[in-house]
Structures are given as structure tokens and as C-alpha cells.
Amino acid sequence: MTGNYALDTLGGVGLEASAVTFARDRGSLFFVGDEGMGIVEIGLTGTTLGSMAFNWAGTGSTNNDAEGLTYLGGGQFVLVDERPQRAYLFDYQAGGTVALGSTPYATISNYSPSNIGIEGISYDARDGSFVTVKQDADGNPARGPQEVRAGQLSFAQGGGSTSIPVLFDAGLLGLANLSDVQTLSSVDRFLGTSVADNLLILSLDSGRLVEATRSGQVVSSLDIAGITNQAIEGVTIDHLGNIYLVAEDSGTPNSRLFVLTTPVPEPETWAMMAAGLALLGWRARRRRGA
Known about the structure:
mainly beta; 5-stranded mixed β-sheet; 23 strands; disordered C terminus
């Protein structure tokens, strides 16, 4: 691990960091807290660059539970409200306020609203599609199973898409829960290789990052449980392959940003920083086949 940075609280906007995304055309990161107060732009070492407030009036949201965030480019974002499984499309304006009640949105799935809803979303610029992860299952069919979905979202005033297809059986991942997802197509050195199709999936409860194919095969895994006692809920990756994690404050004064810096070998030997210790081969810890 090469970075561990405290995030400003910003009167509560910067508390309980739950999702993070990389904005390549700005050279910065954006994160949201799960209290849904707003979005914060930070530098790659956690320095606050600006923020924008959320106004939830007219959305019908009961908890304003901002758990997923992804960047489309040109200052445009998609924000996920976990319980109703809605994805809101909006433009960032530093110092402003976005009225989510009048913002185009899409519905990812039609399960009953719950606190085991959509935890993460990632944009794939190659075809304009999205990948989402649903946190878990609790045995209630109305609230749905743990899921990974992928496909196009149609945003519209008053509601667009009502669902996107399930990509694979999330049970194949062997993770206690799903906290966030990141497409690897955004990494320059993966373009034109099979790795670009893979997904980076975060599990808070398992304390792991896994790389999985779009058929659900886990090809590599990294233990991140030793990084912090705080709850790591968000992950993103930049065009160079550096990984950024955000963790809730969890009783400490600040949420935090953790940076895992990768070297620049060919995709077949991609390696990551492991829990503040030393470089580990990302693919050296593959799950053995049966």
C-alpha cells in the first residue's frame, strides 16, 4: 500500500465514504457517503477539491442511501440509491446542488426496497453499459438474492429501465457479500486483451478483492482485511491500474482513502500492492480448479 489519507468531513458530506470513482479527464477521484448528503471531488492523495450537495426531495427515498457511484466522463455521474435500486444520472457542478427528484433515473431491479440492495455500479465506456452488484440475500424472495448484473440502462425523467440482466450466479464468487464493482476495461494496458472484460469485485464482509470473468470464474484474489479496521466499501481503478479504496469512519474522526499502486508489466503478470506489506502477484493467488 502506498497511500493512506484522511478525508475531510465537510460538515458531514465527507463522512461514511461508501463509493468512489476515478475521473480520468479531471485527474481526480469522487466519492459519496452513505448518508447521501453530496458528492466530493478529491485529488489522488485525498485533498478536497470541491463538492456538490444532493437534494432528495421528491425522490420518495426513505434513507437517501448513496452506495454506488460511477463516472461517465465530461462531468457526468451515475449515483445509486441502494434500497429502491435506482440509478440517478446527473452533471457535477462544484458548489451547487443537484435536485435528484427532477433528475433522470433508471431502476436496476424490482425487488422490494431493502438494506441489502444495490451496493456498487461501474461504467464500461467501450459500449456504454453498466455492471452492478447487489449486496446479499436474506432468504426473503421479495428482497432478492446476491447478484451481479450487466447491460444497458435507459435513464428518463420519472424512471427508465426497470431491470438489467443478471450476468452470472453470484454464488460462484464465494463472497460473503458484494460491496462494489469496477470494470477493468478502463485500464489502458488491458485494452485489446481478455483482461479488459474482467471485473474487480470488493467484499467488505470477506475482506477481499477478487478479479472475475464475466462468467463468474474467479481468476485472482487479494486479502485486504489487514489494511484497516474501518469498513472498506468502495473501490475504483485508474487508467494506470492503481487501485483506490474508501472506508467509512466507523467511529473514527474521518473516512479514509487507501491507494494500492501497481507496477506496469504486461496484463498476464499484473500485480498489486497487498495490505501495506509488499508487492504480491495478483494472479499468483489464483483459485485452483477442480
